[in-house]
Design a protein that fits this description.
With 498 residues, the chain is mainly β. The chain is 2% helix and 30% strand. The radius of gyration is 37 Å and the shape is elongated.
Length: 498
């Protein structure tokens, strides 16, 4: 074994066949360092070195060329050394670690640090380790990509190339910078930022923050409550377990929750936003988006443009926003609103509340007892099975009650109304309405909506005529209701509500 003792200013060149290098602090006066004009070691053949133990007064270290193998740092007290620079030789680009002399406990890379091309992996240990425990197990670069950083609150900064950084346990901060990076947070509350490039980042356990930056990124949270931001580019963003916040940003993104009550917002672009188990909040933002709620009582909002929105199981609330939207419920008592635009809305199973809003809408209630409102515009409204309440709103609407005891009010405008099987109730409303399949034995006309007709006698004497085999009710103010193929003689007082 070759032993080197340094008691003053010296320079040692081209050392080889070294098994152990130690600095013996009992021979030193003041602070000793391998840097500046104090001591400098050049051109080590590190392949022959098995360990390097640094004494308690070693504060600055320069490592020279031909660094080929992984080596161990240790220290003899609780004081942490400082790494100033590392030069990687053999044709590799120079790699600098904290040229501004940052404390290792604060991490290898501070605001002024740089890891250049050829250095794509980091492993480290630090902070309050016992006597002779390795402080830095490997700074391996391209030499030893199998290593991973150890436990601790780490900060890792990549470079413009494609970096692979595994921070392992601890509350870590990892910045990929430019290039197509892979960032792994491990256990702990981590912050991973891919920067420019097509990045892959996984937070692992803990409450993590993942930011993709510009580029087509793949970001995945872990089992806890994570925040995931795609940034620019067409991103794939997934929350996993926990109550996650997922933001697509610019680009055509795909967002997915999982277990937990998630909040997902596609942002700009034509996004796919999918919840899962839990009561999720989904927003499409600008662009033609597709939203799916899955199980749970979800809230879905399409935003601007033409969106497809599906609530699935649970009592869901969905709004289409501006644009010609398609909204669908499923099992559960859903509340679906098309808002502005020519929308299609389908409630399916459950007691649903369906509203078209502005525009010429198509709305279907499906099974069970639904409340359907067309809003403004010339709407087509379908009650389906169940005892439905259907209101046409303003515009010339077409309304189908279908099966069940339905309550139908055409609202303002000239409406075409079809009752169907069951005891239906038709409300006299402003406009000139036409009612098909009125069956006197089961159906009834509600005249409480007009103050002009006060009794059956008043109706027959002043407001009821027959035109072409169909009874016509008029209020004298220009509003009428025609009962197709219903004669005056077939009508009795029980067919009306006054």
């Amino acid at each position: 074994m070759n032993l080197i003792r340094d008691e003053g200013n010296s320079q040692v060149n081209n050392l080889t066949d070294i098994l152990s290098l130690e600095t013996w602090t009992q021979y030193l006066s003041g602070l000793m360092a391998f840097s500046g004009n104090t001591s400098l070691i050049n051109n080590f053949n590190w392949s022959e070195i098995s360990s390097l133990t640094v004494g308690q007064y070693l504060n600055l270290i320069d490592l020279a060329e031909n660094f080929l193998n992984t080596f161990d740092w240790g220290f003899l007290s609780a004081q942490l050394p400082v790494i100033r620079s590392l030069l990687a030789g053999n044709g590799l680009s120079t790699t600098q670690i904290d040229l501004a002399i940052g404390v290792l406990q604060d991490f290898i890379n501070g605001d002024t640090s740089l890891i250049t091309d050829g250095f794509n992996f980091i492993r480290q240990q630090f902070a309050n380790v016992p006597l002779d425990t390795p402080l830095l197990d490997a700074i391996a670069g391209n030499f030893n990509p199998g290593n991973t950083p150890s436990a601790g609150a780490d900060q890792l900064d990549g470079d413009a190339g494609g970096n692979f950084i595994n921070a392992q346990a601890g509350n870590d901060t990892v910045n990929g910078a430019g290039g197509n990076d892979t960032l792994l947070g491990g256990d702990g509350n981590d912050s991973l930022n891919g920067g420019v490039g097509n990045d892959v980042a996984y937070g692992g356990s803990g409450q993590d923050t993942l930011i993709g930056g510009d580029g087509a990124d793949l970001l995945g949270g872990g089992p806890d409550n994570d925040r995931i931001e795609g940034g620019g580019g067409n991103d794939l963003l997934f929350g996993a377990g926990g109550n996650d916040t997922v933001l697509g940003g610019d680009g055509d993104d795909v967002l997915g929750g999982a277990g937990g009550d998630d909040s997902l917002d596609g942002g700009n672009g034509n996004d796919g936003v999918w919840g899962s188990d839990g009561n999720d909040t989904l927003a499409g933002g600008a662009g033609a988006d597709t939203l799916g709620g899955a199980s749970g009582n979800d809230s879905l909002s399409g935003g601007a443009d033409n969106d497809d929105i599906w609530g699935a199981a649970g009592d869901d609330t969905a709004s289409g926003g501006i644009g010609d939207d398609l909204l669908g419920g499923s099992i559960g008592n859903d509340s679906l609103s098309g808002d502005e635009g020519n929308d299609e809305i389908w409630g399916a199973a459950g007691n649903d509340t369906l509203a078209g809003g502005d525009g010429n809408d198509q709305i279907g209630g499906g099974s069970d007892d639904d409340q359907i409102s067309g809003g403004s515009g010339n709407d087509q409204l379908f009650g389906g099975s169940g005892n439905d309440q259907i209101f046409g709103g303003s515009g010339s609407d077409t309304i189908f009650g279908a099966a069940g005891a339905d309550t139908i009010n055409g609202g303002e405008g000239d409406d075409d109304i079809w009752g169907g099987p069951g005891g239906d109730q038709f409300a006299f409303s402003p406009g000139n309405d036409t009612v098909h399949f009125f069956a006197g034995a089961d159906d009834v006309i509600d005249l409480t909506t007009t103050a002009q007709i006060i009794s059956f006698t008043d109706l027959v004497d002043n407001h009821l005529t027959e035109v072409g085999g169909s009874a016509v009710i008029s209020d004298g103010l220009g509003n009428s209701m025609t009962l197709v193929n219903v004669s005056l003689a077939s009508l009795v007082a029980d067919d009306f509500i006054f």
